[in-house]
Amino acid sequence: MLKRAIHTGAAVIALAAVTLGCAAPEYTYVKNSDEKTYFKVPQDWRQTSTDELDGYLSGSNPDSAAAAIRQQLWWSVAYDASSIPSAVHLISYDATDEPIVYARVAKLTEPERNAVSLDMLRNSVLPVTAAAREAAEDPRLSDFELLSDDVLTPSDGTHGVRVVYDYAITGVMHTFDLTALLNNTGDRLYLLLIRCSTSCYRERGDQLDTIATSFTVRSK
User: Fold this and answer.
1) Which UniProt keywords apply (predicted)?
2) What is the CATH number of the domain that holds 84?
3) How far is 186 from 106, CA to CA, in rounded Å?
C-alpha cells in the first residue's frame, strides 16, 4: 500500500509540473529588434492602433507631408488593460480607470537634436517643469504633483529621466509614469508612458513599476 501511495504521489507531482510548465505566460514581451528596445506588459492587455495617437502627439495633420515624414521616423506601440482597448485612452480628458502603456522610438531631426535637454524629456508629453507649466494654457489640467524625478543612465549608450507625476483632469486625479531616454549620439528618443487614474496607479503600483523598469534599450 505504501509503495502504491508513493507511486500515486509521484504521478500527481509530475502532472502538476507538466501543468505548470504549460501555463500561459504572465507577460507579453514587446520589442523593436532593429532599435534594440524591449519591455513587457501583462499577457491579458491588448495591443491597439497608435495612428490617431501619434498624429495627436506629433501635432501633425494625418494627411500632411509632415505626418508622412513622421511615419518614417517613428515606431510606436500601445497596450491597454481596458476591456475596450483604445490608444486614445492615453490622451483622453475622461477618467481612465484601467492602465494603458505607450512606447515610441523616434529618429530625431536636426532641429530636435539641437533642442534636446533633460527638461525637454520631462516635458515630452505633458508640462512637468515649472517653466513649462507656467507657459501651458489648458484649464482642464490642474493640481499638478511631482511624485518622483530620477535621472537615468541605464547603459553606456543612453541617458534620460523617469518622472512620475499627477494631474487632475476635469476633476479626476491621474498618474503619469514617463521614462524618456536619449542615445549618446543624440539622434534617437526612446519613450515609455503609463497612464491611469491615481487610484488605479496606487492599486496596481507593483505591476506598473514592473512594466516601467522592464523598458530596456541596448547600445548599438
Assistant:
1) Signal
2) 3.40.1000.10
3) 11
* Average pLDDT across the chain, whole number: 85
pTM to 2 decimal places: 0.84
Contacts of 41 (CB under 8 A, 6+ apart): 27, 28, 30, 79, 101, 211
- Tell me which residue of 76, 109, 104, 102 sits closest to 186, measured CA to CA: 109
Alpha carbons 167 and 141: distance in angstroms, whole number:
6
Best CA proximity match to 153, nearest among 119, 132, 182, 120: 182
- Distance (Å, whole) CA 51 – CA 131: 30
Q: How many domains does the chain have?
A: 1
Would you say residue 203 lies in a domain? Answer: yes
Kindly report, residue by residue over 135-182, the tens digit of the pLDDT. Answer: 998 888 999 999 999 999 987 789 999 999 999 998 899 999 999 999
Question: How many Cβ atoms from other residues are within 10 Å of residue 157's Cβ?
Answer: 17
Residue 136 lies in a domain: yes
